[in-house]
Write a structure and sequence with these properties.
Keywords: Membrane, Transmembrane, Transmembrane helix
Order of helices and strands: HHHH
Helix content: over 70%
Radius of gyration: 16 Å
Distance between the termini: 25 Å
Protein name: YhhN-like protein
Strand content: under 5%
Number of strands: 0
Number of helices: 4
InterPro entries: DUF6992
């Protein structure tokens, strides 16, 4: 596989996916409180989705930095929506909703930093 920006991005996303799925598996197995069960469940769902996105990108056509920029801009905007949604969920009274909120906050924060970094890298390559 060539050492290009898309490949590094996809590998990073797949590693995050594996970390999320692994942590969720251990966390759910521990049978914690409702708050933590919902947190780990949400982390696992996000890990699964990130893995599917990464896997499909790995199998697809390679993209240039110029082609990645629009997708990264959109993703960064979505990440901000995830963080806003996390804030709403965290403000709820039920432990399940707050656990989901923390899960979305962790995943959304990582993805915002991840997408922001690759947006910056791609913008530097494009000029």
């Amino acid at each position: 596989m060539p050492d290009d920006i898309q490949h590094r991005l996809v590998v990073g996303l797949l590693l995050w996916s594996l970390a999320s799925l692994g942590a969720a598996t251990v966390g759910l197995y521990a049978r914690p409180s409702e708050f933590w069960r919902s947190f780990w469940f949400m982390s696992g769902i996000w890990g699964l989705i990130d893995g599917l996105i990464g896997w499909s990108a790995l199998l697809g056509e390679p993209g240039t930095a110029a082609k990645l920029l629009p997708a990264l801009r959109i993703n960064a905007g979505l990440d901000l929506l995830y963080l806003a949604s996390a804030g709403v969920l965290l403000s709820r009274k039920g432990p399940m909703l707050r656990g989901f909120g923390l899960g979305v906050l962790v995943q959304g924060s990582f993805l915002l930093a991840f997408d922001g970094y690759y947006w910056w890298r791609c913008a530097g390559l494009v000029g």
